[in-house]
Known about the structure:
Elements lengths: L8 H24 L6 H25 L25 E12 L2 H14 L13 H11 L2 H6 L6 E13 L21 E7 L1 H36 L10
Helix pairs in contact: 1-2, 3-4
Amino acid sequence: MSDAVQPTAAEVRAAAEAVKTALDRHLAAVERRSGEDDPAVYEAFNELASAAETYDELLYDRYDEVTPFEIPGAEDALPPYTGPEEPNALSVLIRRDYAVAEPQRLLAQAQRVEAADYDEGADADASGTVHGALGTLFGEFEPDEIASRHKEFGLEEGDSTLWVIASDDQTDPGEWLEAPFEGVDPQRVVCRFDVSAVFDDDLDDELDDTDDDSDAESDDDLEDELDRDLDEGDLEPLDADR
Length: 242
């Protein structure tokens, strides 16, 4: 059970009631849907998922219990595509998270870059701060190169995602620079690719389960084989003189 402030029983009860309400709304939206890609169904689905997740968290914090609900990942919850069938332009949105695992390595690499930008024998004006070093490195190297060489720069990879979004026309120069990630329409996402340690953990769990099942099956097979041998008298009796 979490050491944080425990939710009250009333809060858990209210969250349960919210799930019931969201469930009714989702069923009603499904019954009234106008087609396979009805946005009302999608909205009701998201509300139900959010309510179920909130209830699950409160239930665990209060009673150390969980629900059988499984909330789909963000990729599974994307709305149906409603963008142009033949896009004339596209936008690629990329987010990559890093942890500064080795600040000294990061600073050293930034100082090398700064030193190379000056004439031999001149003093490099290295800032000596982590944020200054980050600005130097990301100003010198392409993001893809940093991604492939992140360990050299003292960085540790976190989650990353890439979204490809279809457009009718290419935007005018400078049109979105003030707010580059604002107003993204999820219904125009052609595809997305996510990388996270969460997926690795899920795979490891599946492999562990498979190994456990295989070991159990092997043990069962061995026992069955021994039983058959004993029944058929294939095993020779031990010689008492040996």
